[in-house]
Amino acid sequence: MSLPANKTSLLESFFDQRSYAKKELLLTEGQRCFEKFFIVKGCVQLSYLRQDGTEQTLDFALENWWISDFMAFAHGGISQFSIRAVERTEVLAISAAHQHALLEQVPELHAYFHLMFQRAYAASQMRLRYLYEFSKEELYLHFLRHFPAFTQRVPQYLLASFLGFTPVYLSELRKKFVS
């Protein structure tokens, strides 16, 4: 979406630019969620702590993706998730109040945010389908084929968590398909 120069500078005034070190938290589970994040550079992980104390990865966001606990963001509620930088990451953060004001001043962005939300929701739907439909081997091979750079970029223990595997099982699969 292209905007006139005067609206582009206005747009920038609503965001906070931030940098996060590898493993640094952008949002902590149990904390109020007032912001969502646009990934300028880097990769972040959305996860929660399971009852057994293990971390379950639900999602990742790479460059040009948005991430937040969207339910908590919408209501200023308590986050059910943590968001952590997988690598050094640069984001643009916007609060719900700033987003509301931005959309008042630049209504053309409603269509953009709608499209981004649709894209994220569609990706979630496809991931759920793959989790239900594919065997573990098929799921791993699908990710290798369709997201090779991503599978190399993300630590294997996080990829295993995202795919619903143990790190040991993922290691066995990797050995099987690399040799």
Architecture overview:
- The strands form 2 sheets. The protein has a 4-stranded antiparallel β-sheet with strand order 1-8-3-6. The protein has a 4-stranded antiparallel β-sheet with strand order 2-7-4-5.
- 48% of the residues lie in helices and 23% in strands.
- Strand 4 (44-49) and strand 5 form a beta hairpin.
- It has 179 residues and is α+β, with helices and mostly antiparallel strands.
- The chain has a domain at 5-107: Jelly Rolls (Sandwich).
- It is built from 8 helices and 8 strands, in the order H-E-E-E-E-E-E-H-E-E-H-H-H-H-H-H.
Order of helices and strands: HEEEEEEHEEHHHHHH
Q: Could you give the distance between the termini?
A: 45 Å
The residue ranges in which pLDDT falls below 50 over 5 or more consecutive positions are none
CATH superfamily of the domain at 5-107: Jelly Rolls
CATH class categorisation of the domain at 5-107: Mainly Beta
Please state the average pLDDT score. Answer: 92
How many β strands by DSSP?
8
InterPro entries: cNMP-bd_dom, cNMP-bd_dom_sf, RmlC-like_jellyroll
Protein name: Crp/Fnr family transcriptional regulator
Pfam families: cNMP_binding (PF00027)
Domain Cyclic nucleotide-binding: 18-105
Offer a quick outline of the entry.
The protein is an alpha+beta fold and 179 residues long.
Architecture blueprint of SSEs:
Blueprint: H1 5-12, E1 16-20, E2 25-27, E3 35-41, E4 44-49, E5 55-61, E6 66-67, H2 70-75, E7 82-85, E8 89-95, H3 96-105, H4 109-133, H5 136-146, H6 148-153, H7 156-163, H8 167-178
